[in-house]
Amino acid sequence: MNIENAQVQMRKGILEFCILHIISRGEIYASDMLDELTSARIMVVEGTLYPLLTRLKNAGLLDYKWVESTSGPPRKYYMLTELGRNSLESLNETWQELSDSVMLIVNRAQTNGSSVAPPIQTAVDVLPAPPAAVAVVSVTPATETDTPAASASSVDIVMPESAPEPKQDQ
């Protein structure tokens, strides 16, 4: 798996969602969108943004208007259409569900003391030890020179010297 490619694909997958959010706050110029995306560490270039904005406009999610500029050519400001607002609302719901699901999975891995997937549990991990005994499990991997008896896993049970007597209420 190419990690950089996976990261790029994750960012691309949410780019439209982020752009719709930025535009939802009010009329905005494309370079201001680029600045906001860049400050949020979502690196986008004009060659990616403008075709995406055109696609969103053609889908009826946004519109634009030209505004004269005192320091150069007129500027195109984007705004959401009613369909764009409804679509963003739907995407918000999907994002929340997806985000909650992903965090549930990530938090479970972190609860187990790891940022990677926890190991598969075995019966020894799941079953409780008998009362007053401590199970110590040691697994030795087999090598090619080991005999079948020598390659078996071993389980040692260590008994405490004396189990404490249960306290009786007097």
Write the topology of this structure.
Elements: H1 3-24, E1 28-29, H2 30-39, H3 46-58, E2 62-69, E3 72-80, H4 82-111, H5 123-126, E4 134-138, E5 154-158
Antiparallel strand pairs: 1-3, 2-3, 4-5
Which tags fit this structure?
170 residues; alpha+beta; three-stranded antiparallel sheet; two-stranded antiparallel sheet; 5 strands; elongated
Could you describe the 3D structure shown?
The structure is a single chain. 6% of the residues are buried. The model is unreliable at 120-164 (pLDDT under 50). With 170 residues, the protein is α+β, with helices and mostly antiparallel strands. Strand 2 (62-69) and strand 3 (72-80) form a beta hairpin. The chain has helices at 3-24, 30-39, 46-58, 82-111, 123-126; strands at 28-29, 62-69, 72-80, 134-138, 154-158. The protein contains 5 helices and 5 strands; from the N terminus they run αβααββααββ. Helix 1 (3-24) packs across helix 4. The chain is elongated and about 60 Å long. The chain starts with a helix and ends in a 12-residue tail after the last strand.
In short:
This protein has 170 residues and is α+β, with helices and mostly antiparallel strands.
Q: Mean of the pLDDT scores? A: 77
DSSP, total strands: 5
Characterize the overall form: elongated
Adjacency order of strands in the biggest sheet: 1-3-2
